[in-house]
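Example 3.2
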Amino acid sequence: MSEKQIQTATVLRSPVHFLAFGFGSGLAPKAPGTAGTIVAVLLYLCCQSLDLLSYSILTAAICITGVWICGKSSEKLGVHDHGGIVWDEFAGYFITMIAAPPGWIWIVLGFILFRLFDILKPWPIKWADENVDGGLGIMLDDIIAGLAAFGVLQILAYFFI
């Protein structure tokens, strides 16, 4: 069995890895973070009709449980912030979309903004990525990227709606 097959089998058999790897989306051979964010968009479509309080509670739960999920998966794999761990992308995208205006343009714009902040990692995102360990470290840079993307999305919505 190849290393890729072992990794796939490990992810699909372990509930912690399955969640951390974004229901398997983190197994994408190229751009697993983008693949994870695409799955986050699909999940968002199921949740976008929630009222603001319910959506915010769900987003907080994704962030809080993500610290444990990502930390445990990373620990079991023996690799800090394995590229396939994409639960943090779920959290970042859900944060980006808090109180987002309805419509596909905002969903796509939120996706683009979050991916840009997550990939480019301007300060303080890069600082968090390089200086915070464990599950919190895996989650924190994406949480900050989500907050930055949220801010830009809200500014754009203010001026264009």
